[in-house]
Design a protein that fits this description.
Blueprint (H helix, E strand, L loop, with lengths): L1 H19 L6 E2 L16 H7 L12 E8 L6 H11 L3 E5 L1 H6 L1 H9 L3 E4 L12 H18 L7 E2 L5 E2 L1 H9 L3 E2 L17 H11 L4 E6 L3 H16 L3 E2 L2 H8 L3 H4 L2
Parallel strand pairs: 2-3, 2-8, 2-9, 3-4, 5-7
Antiparallel strand pairs: 1-6
Helix pairs in contact: 3-9, 8-9
InterPro entries: Glyco_hydro/deAcase_b/a-brl, NODB_dom, Polysacc_deacetylase_ArnD, Spore_PdaA
Protein name: Delta-lactam-biosynthetic de-N-acetylase
Pfam family, one: Polysacc_deac_1
């Protein structure tokens, strides 16, 4: 009897969560990669992003790049990456989890002190499509509070959903909570620390996919990325690219080109 009650409770909770999410199908962010140096086609996702003010690239055609890094844990390379960004005067956004903030407060402080943006990657890294709006709110607010305790950045406004999983409901809810979803238009498998292939591989992966307005997703656990970053930045500058922050992208998107000056 007790086993039956326990199973019934689990079924009820699963049904309740499904009702909370209105049974909206979940999507994993992805697109067909191309090497024609144009933003990838994201199909029907574009309508959803436009509806809720989300981004995956700067579609203006300007030769601008936005560097973003996902940080779930530290592998010893973030300091090196920050050194390169400082030397080359390039801004970046670091999407961090609660574990990262709790374990690496000094790196969080350094990121903010050196002019980078901290983005919200949630506190516990759950699949947002399976939890309620209140649970999502708690995940985001707890992470924001943790960042505020160890740095001068008191508010987080950019969100990268855990695992890149989303649906219209999660886009709507997080928009109502004041967040801007930021996906990406350039990425490769760089997080498998036991399968690093040398900095040239990372360099080639980025250069093959680079395009005007790219939002690049990289992981700081990659030794390849740490070694390739300075080479990438210098080469892209030679090709006429500039590096901007996500704040620049949002400002640009909301002002006439003649006012923004691009």
């Amino acid at each position: 009897m007790q086993k039956f009650i326990a199973v019934s409770v689990i079924v009820f909770l699963a049904f309740f969560i499904g009702m909370e999410n209105n049974h909206v199908a979940a999507y994993g962010w992805g697109f067909k990669k191309n090497s024609d140096h144009q933003p990838p086609d994201i199909g029907e996702y574009q309508e959803l992003l436009d509806k809720y003010g989300a981004y995956y690239a700067d579609l203006s055609g300007d030769k601008v790049i936005y560097l973003t890094f996902d940080n779930g844990y530290e592998a010893g390379y973030t300091g090196e990456i920050l050194d390169v960004l400082k030397k080359e005067e390039v801004p970046a956004t670091f999407f961090v989890t609660g574990h990262y903030v709790d374990s690496e407060p000094e790196l969080i402080k350094r990121m903010v002190d050196e002019g980078h943006i901290i983005g919200n990657h949630s506190y516990h890294h759950p699949d947002f499509s399976t939890i309620s709006k209140d649970s999502i709110k708690e995940e985001l607010e707890t992470l924001e509070e943790a960042v505020a305790e160890v740095s001068d950045q008191k508010e987080l406004k950019y969100l990268r959903p855990p695992r890149g999983i989303f649906n219209e409901q999660t886009l709507k809810w997080t928009s109502e909570l004041g967040y801007i979803h930021v996906f990406w238009s350039l990425a490769f498998v760089d997080w498998e620390t036991s399968k690093q292939k040398g900095w040239e591989y990372a360099f080639e992966q980025v250069m093959d996919q680079i395009h005007p307005g790219a939002i690049a997703l990289l992981h700081t656990v990659s030794s390849d990325n740490a070694e390739a970053l300075e080479h990438l930045i210098k080469e892209l500058k030679k090709q006429g690219y500039t590096f901007k922050s996500l704040d620049d992208l949002v400002i640009k998107d909301h002002l006439p080109p003649s006012i923004y000056g691009f």
